[in-house]
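# step 3/5: fold
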Amino acid sequence: MNKALLDDYGFHIDLYRDTGRRVPIQVKTPDDLLGDDKVFDFIKTDIHGVEYEVLASMSDALWENATGIYVETRTIPFYEGEHTLDEIAKLMKDRGFCWLFSRDGAGHPFCSEYDVFFVKDPRTIRTVEQALKHCLAGLLVGRFEYVRYILRFYKERYGACEVLDTFGRKACRLFLLSPEHA
């Protein structure tokens, strides 16, 4: 834990006091846990300070197949050696992902926690299936303008598509949106 940070907020210190006791744990990479089936569209991490290490250890196959990755992290390290949101954002950018959504986590008042959802750069979309996954990502985090953007992007790049046009009309009705995607 970041002792200096805790000292600044002494009224919480008893809740987070380091006892000096260390407990060894067995660690597995995402590839170890997920096995040979590396087809995951969305990945969520909430692993208290080791998000960066886990993301950095993912195989190229996991990065390639993922459309969105949701990360809970902080702007100020709470745990010893914890990487910050800025470092995670750089890793995500280096792996071809863009920041789609974030929200201030209401966890600890002094840790600057954030939930951040990254999506694969939409300029890599080549198929209707990929476009639909990006639309789903936008819907998952309430970014309807992103859904409209993806529908327009695909139509301008590849032409009209009955599947995406139908999806766009239904999404507009479901979420009471104006049909600006057409």
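# step 4/5: annotate
Residues 125-182 form one domain.
# step 5/5: archive (pending)
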